[in-house]
Design brief:
tt1808, chain A, single chain, 5 domains, Rossmann fold, alpha/beta, 24 strands, 745 residues
Length: 745
């Protein structure tokens, strides 16, 4: 069929002065668009656009832009196509800039734009200066698969969360199929339930271990290779190992590699306990306490000196973070650990020593009214801030507690770190921008949590630990660190480039038909769009974002609901051979309709929704469709709108559809039926009444008039899912009520 598209066209006609731009449009472009799958309603010709910036003349008359074709998918413009005369350049210059201006127009906002001069076809991405596809029209059969994959209506997607449904269990008993895995719902965080993570060693950010565990279990199988290129505290690698996957932990910070390697290295726990007791005995015999013994210890036992701390620190040099007594005692303790010749026991002891550093320094702040030291300022405040009221903890007691924590962690993971299984874990210090140690298409799943712009300068903040552990950080390491700001004053462009290169490498090593989950919590939409657009440019297909809470709502989130993410977003991508591309919504769309549809959808999904749930859904939708900026302007505070249009229950802090009112937007029929059925049955239970089927139908039919009105059989089908028959009436099932409780109702 494609071979016949221009089979009877004589391309020598293009040399005739009579074959002009209009001929290119009618003779060549229209058949091509039809073959791509566009029907007349979706081919918008010569639409007049007002230039958003320029006007001419003393009257300031608007300049009109008129693209030849705007191609629609749904209600949005997917791409722009302009016809040019056969003698015109379509690879660079004014023609390309002209069509680029159409693609970025507020009413269009398309990722792709194309030009055709009859001889050739050139396809561009908005963010690239050279064509991503260029071919002679006579050779179209050779390039058709690529062209179709980029521009067919099926190549585009309109976000992932417009259709709402009740929360579903992620349990899938069918044979494992990577691509068919659904997105996970938000997972309840269990921070302290795993000794392998809690109480071993602090780190600047830590993913909730059970969230990571469920994602790995959901998107991979035992024996698969799991990669985390921004490994941090090692949650991904360790949880992969616990689930019988192979894992690669990579991080630029040598402290990160040290923590994971020390925790997961095989060790005889009885021997480790004996070694600790020997160290404790030797320490207590010669502990530097008096002024004289402290001075002697400072001369005899090395400690880090003259390492310059980051700007903004309360002191300039590393030794000023400690009292003389702390330096002497820590130096002596480290000396005793290093005397142990067995590296297998030395590593976990050094891990406990490094964790001790977190509490034995002058930046340690007590916690609230308890006066118990929690951690050091770089972990809590992300800077070296001296504590106003420092509590001087006992070094050997602190070290003993940390050794117990390490032993508990190692005991919990002992079955997974013996000599037979340790080969399944690779711990490396290196950059996410270079995964050349991996061949292409060798990784089965990626779960990673990259730095968020200028939030945390990891290498700068790790100087205290890296110095004491004698871990080297080079200038090259600093150059490759994906942050904004920091001691090396990196720009936003530097950060963007490093993140983009990292994503490109992850795409290269991931197998086809596999997933990448990218954790992100930056408040600036620009960075979110960077992730999406870079991933799409590399070849990933966006599969959806999930709001994952951290258990608490911050003050900043409550004050700025549209710019501060509570918890984080887990952005999921698939590597497929023919990815679909996200279309940005034009600014001419009815944002109010989207807002109301979203609110009603979330209320229906959860049987009543909190402000947080509504905010998060709107953030995801606004980011996905590229209208968060407009959303912020028109709906900077949702509260007045919600209080006007919906009922609010103070005890549960949930918004619901007003009593005896129907949904105003096109929410899925079964979801609407379910919402009203549960509401009706719960009300009758509170009144200690039995719900009769005929009464149920009469009560909810009037509320279901927007869209398709259900048959009684439809209502009965939904009713049987959520309730059970009692004589002539119905009551909610216990498991249905349990489901409501799980969703917070």
């Amino acid at each position: 069929m494609i071979n016949q598209l221009f089979e009877y066209f004589d391309f020598s006609q293009l040399e005739s002065p009579d074959f002009k731009e209009d001929s290119v449009r009618e003779v060549l472009i229209l058949p091509l668009l039809t073959q791509l799958g566009y029907e007349q309603p979706h081919i918008v010709r010569s639409k007049s656009l007002i230039h958003p910036f320029l006007k001419i003349g003393s009257q300031k008359r608007p300049i009109k832009l008129i693209p030849d074709y705007l191609l629609k998918v749904g209600n949005n413009y997917a791409w722009v196509l302009d016809a040019k005369a056969p003698n015109e350049n379509i690879q660079s210059g004014d023609n390309v800039e002209q069509v680029f201006s159409y693609s970025i127009h507020p009413e269009v906002r398309s990722t792709f734009f194309a030009l055709c001069n009859g001889w050739a076809f050139a396809l561009f991405r908005q963010d690239m200066t050279k064509p991503i596809l260029y071919f002679q029209l006579k050779d179209i059969a050779q390039y058709w698969d690529q062209l179709y994959a980029h521009l067919a209506p099926s190549a585009f997607q309109m976000g992932k969360r417009f259709v709402y449904s009740p929360p579903k269990s992620a349990i899938n008993t069918a044979p494992f199929d990577y691509l068919s895995q659904p997105l996970l719902e938000e997972i309840t965080v269990k921070k302290r339930a795993a000794k392998r993570h809690f109480g071993v060693h602090g780190y600047f950010t830590k993913q909730a271990w059970n969230v990571v565990n469920q994602y790995i279990a959901h998107f991979s199988q035992p024996g698969d290779l799991v990669l985390d290129s921004f490994g941090g505290s090692g949650i991904t690698a360790i949880e992969a190992m616990m689930l019988d996957r192979r894992a690669i932990h990579l991080d630029l910070n040598p402290m990160s590699a040290f923590l994971v390697d020390s925790l997961t290295h095989p060790v005889d726990l009885d021997e480790l306990k004996i070694n600790f007791e020997q160290i404790k005995f030797a320490y207590l015999r010669h502990e530097p306490i008096s002024e004289n013994t402290i001075e002697k210890a400072l001369k005899k036992y090395p400690y880090p000196k003259d390492f310059v701390l980051p700007k903004g620190s309360d002191v300039q040099l590393i030794q000023d973070l400690f009292s003389k007594k702390q330096l002497a005692q820590l130096g002596f303790l480290k000396h005793l650990i290093l005397k142990k010749s067995n590296k297998n026991t030395q590593k976990p002891l050094l891990l406990a020593f490094s964790s001790t550093l977190n509490l034995i320094n002058l930046t340690c702040h007590p916690s609230g009214q308890s006066d118990i030291t929690v951690d050091s300022a770089p972990m809590r405040y992300y800077r070296y801030r001296l504590a106003p009221k420092h509590k001087d903890l006992d070094v050997i007691k602190t070290f003993e507690n940390k050794v117990k924590g390490v032993i508990n962690a190692k005991f919990e993971i002992a079955d997974k770190i013996n000599q037979d299984t340790i080969a399944n874990l690779q711990v490396m210090q290196g950059t996410a921008t270079d995964l050349s140690f991996l061949k292409k298409e060798t990784v089965d799943y990626i779960y990673t949590d990259p730095p968020y712009g200028k939030k945390i300068p990891y290498l700068d903040l790790s100087v205290m630990w890296n110095a004491w552990l004698e871990l080297t950080v080079t200038e090259q390491d600093y150059a490759l660190e994906a942050i904004e700001g920091g001691e090396h004053e990196k720009s936003k462009a530097d950060y963007n480039a490093l993140i983009a290169k990292s994503i490109a490498e992850m795409y290269r090593v991931l197998k086809f038909d596999r997933w990448m989950s990218f954790v992100f919590a930056h408040k600036d939409p620009e960075f979110w769009h960077l992730i999406i657009e870079t991933a799409e440019r590399c070849g990933f297909e966006y599969a959806g974002a999930v709001a994952q809470k951290n258990g608490q709502t911050s003050f900043k989130k409550r004050q700025n609901p549209f710019t501060v993410l509570s918890g984080q977003l887990i952005i999921n991508f698939r590597k497929v051979r023919h990815p679909k591309y996200i279309m940005k919504a034009s600014l001419g769309m009815d944002i109010g309709e989207v807002v109301i549809q979203t609110i009603e959808g979330v209320i229906a999904k959860y049987q009543g929704a909190t402000l947080e749930q509504i905010n998060d859904e709107l953030i995801i939708k606004g980011l996905e469709l590229g209208f968060l900026d407009l959303l912020k302007k028109q709906y900077s505070d949702l509260t007045p709108l919600l209080l006007e249009l919906f009922d609010f229950d103070k005890p549960t802090e949930r918004f619901t559809i007003k009593a005896n009112k129907s949904f105003t937007t096109q929410i899925d029929l079964h979801l609407r039926v379910r919402y009203y059925l549960i509401s009706y049955l719960r009300r009758l239970e509170r009144e200690n009444k039995i719900a009769i089927f005929d009464d149920i139908v009469l009560a909810i039919i009037p509320l279901l008039k927007n869209g398709v009105t259900p048959e009684s059989q439809t209502i009965l089908s939904v009713l049987e899912d959520i309730a059970y028959c009692v004589g002539d009436g119905w009551r909610l099932k216990a498991d249905g009520q349990a489901t409501l409780l799980l969703t917070g109702v």
